[in-house]
Amino acid sequence: MKKMILISLSILLVLLIILVGAGNYFYSESVKRGVQVELHSEPESVNAIAEQSNQLLDESLEWYEQNKNKFETVEQTSYDGLILKAQFLNNENGNGNAVILAHGYRGDHKHMSEFVKFYVDQGFDVLMPDARGHGQSEGDYIGYGWHDRIDYQGWINKLIKEQDTENIFLHGISMGAGLVLMTSGEELPEQVKGIIADSGYSSVEDELNYQLKNLYHLPSFPLMNITSLITKVRAGYTFEEASAIEQVKKNTRPLFLIHGDADELVPTYMANEIYDVANGDKQLWIVPKAGHTKSYSVATEEYQKRLTDFIESSLK
C-alpha cells in the first residue's frame, strides 16, 4: 500500500514538474520581453490583398519618413517605477486635439506610422508611446494592455497638463486595441472624447487559448492556468483579469470597433463579443477581405472617412 502511494506521489511530482516547465516555456513565448515568437498566421491570399498598391497609404508612410525627425522623445515614470517613452509631434497647425496611437504585440511606436499623416491633416497633435516591455520603454514583460491601461492614464494626463490638450482620442491596433479597450473602463478625464479599437481581442485569456489551440493543438487546461499563475508571480497579473470584455462594460466614451472579416490572428467573433457588451455609444465595422490589422490598407479611403465621421460626432 505504501509503495503504491509513493509511486502515485512520484508520478504527480513528475507531472507537476513537467507542467511548471511547460508553463515557464509558454510564459517566455507569450509574455517575456524580447522573444521572437510564431503566431497563428493567415493565408497568403489574405495578405496579398493588403499588399496591393495603395497610393494613400504610400503617401502616408512617405510623409512619416520625411517628418519623423520633427517628433520629440517624451517620457513618464509608471506607477511601478518604469521609464516609459513616447514620440510626440506638436502639430504646428494644431486645433487643441490629440491622438494617442497604441501599437501591437512585440512592436513599437513606428508600427502606427501609417496613421500619423491622417491625424496631422485633421489638426491633431500625435503621441506614439512604446508600451511597457517594448521599444525604448522599460519593462521585462508584456502587459497585453492590462498594466498599460494605467500607463495610458499617465499619458493622457501628461497631454492635458503639459500641452493643454482639449480633446483626446485613443486609437490602437491588435494589442494596442486591447489596451485602449481596457483603458475605456477606467475613470478618464473629460478631455477623452473617443476610442478607436482595430483588431482587438476580447481578453488575454481568450486570445492565448486561441493561439495555443491553433499553434500547438493543445487544450487550454491546465497549461494556460499554470502559465497564468506564473505570469501573476513574475509580471503581477493573470490572463483572466486582463479582459477587454469586462472593461468595456464600464465604458462611457464613444467607441468605434474595427475588425477584418478574414482575421485569423484575432478572430472576428471577438469584435462581436466586445460590441455586444460594450456600454456607451458604439459602432462596429467589419471590413470585407481584411486580415489582422489590415483594414486600413484594404479600405484606406473608407477607413479615413469613417474615422472623420466618428471624430466629428464624438466632438459634438
Concise account of the structure shown:
By secondary structure, this protein is of the alpha/beta class.
The average pLDDT value, as a whole number, equals: 92
Question: What is the level 1 CATH name of the largest domain?
Answer: Alpha Beta
| Outline | globular
Strand order of the largest sheet: 1-2-4-3-5-6-7-8
Which range best describes the helical content: under 10%, 10-25%, 25-40%, 40-55%, 55-70% or over 70%?
A: 40-55%
What percentage of the residues does DSSP assign to strands (E)? 15-25%
Whole-number count of domains: 2
The number of helical elements comes to 12
Largest sheet: 8 strands, mixed
Under the CATH scheme, the architecture of the largest domain is: 3-Layer(aba) Sandwich
Kindly describe this structure.
The chain is globular and about 80 Å long. The chain folds into two domains: 1-30 and 205-241, no CATH class; 51-203 and 242-315, Rossmann fold (3-Layer(aba) Sandwich). Strands 1-2-4-3-5-6-7-8 form an eight-stranded mixed beta sheet, sandwiched between helices. The chain is of the alpha/beta class. Helix content is 44%, strand content 16%.
Descriptors:
about 325 residues; alpha/beta; about 45% helix; globular; Rossmann fold; eight-stranded mixed β-sheet
Write the layout of secondary structure elements.
Elements: H1 2-30, H2 44-50, H3 55-67, E1 72-77, E2 83-89, E3 97-102, H4 116-121, E4 124-129, H5 148-163, E5 167-173, H6 175-183, E6 192-198, H7 204-216, H8 223-235, H9 244-248, E7 255-260, H10 269-277, E8 282-287, H11 295-298, H12 300-315
Parallel strand pairs: 3-4, 3-5, 5-6, 6-7, 7-8
Antiparallel strand pairs: 1-2, 2-4
Helix pairs in contact: 1-8, 5-6
